[in-house]
Task: structure prediction
Amino acid sequence: MADVFWSAERDRRLRDEAIAWLKLRTNDGAVPLTRSEIKDFSFDGDTFALQATQQGIRKPRQLEAALSIQTVYRSPGQPRPYEDTMGSDGLLRYMWRGEDPEIPDNMALRAALENDLPLIWFIGVGMAPAIFQAVCPVYIVSEEPDLKRFVLAPFDEEAFLPRVAGQDTVIQETVKRYLTRETKIRLHQPVFRSTVLRAYEDRCSVCNLGHRVLLDAAHIVPDSHELGIASVVNGLALCKIHHAAFDSSILGIRPDLVVQIRPDLLEEIDGPMLQYGLKERHGQKLMMLPNRKVEQPRADLLEIAYDRFLNATPA
Ligand SMILES: [Zn+2]
Result:
């Protein structure tokens, strides 16, 4: 039986409803979802699969273009089967499947490009169970056939790009910085947060507080630093107070994972937050760490952060 594609209107409505549903289910991107949670979506009265069963794209037979792409979680150090990279223009790259531009998956992605259709990107942030950060909408904005890949923007590029002449390098630089920042906010930050909080089981590493809304995924080494990688090994789940204390060198973490508090605060007498929240953590081991060794903080990164703490601390 030949496939009968849905009308452009119905296709568009499916995408819009799916994206609205995901925003609701994830509390606007704040929480990741398991495969079975993603399976709860229904459209026009029937459940409708949004996600491929494995790595790669999902193109429902009723649609001409891809609906979603999926990148599975890989532990730090493990290569991904398809390397997704950020280009110098601030946009993301998604590799073709295989070498042949005409195979169905690549055709389905090209159809999304040609028809300017929004997609969903499910990015793995943990295994067993597999959980995914849903990033949407994502648009395919161009293709680089010689490099066998597509260019993706995790936002509606049309709505974001000022209509400017392409020659002015100052404007080009500004646009590039702008796109880089938007990609960071819409894709890298939520993926980093979900990966880190999942690894620390939604608990503050310093005090074990277990309320997700009070937790941040802190960078051990700031992401402006050359080693400031957006990987779980450069992350710590910290409550808001301990995050601010860490960033301002009130609290340091020794490379052997023991908490240190700035000496002058240890002398200070004040209320319960200072007493229990800070002073009594001094000399204590971190209370929560990822179960899997490969996801634990990297020693060289802790070393850099601890040097910063010591240098900021008057002896
Ligand atoms: Zn805490």
Notes: The chain has a mean pLDDT of 91. The two ends are 79 Å apart (CA to CA).
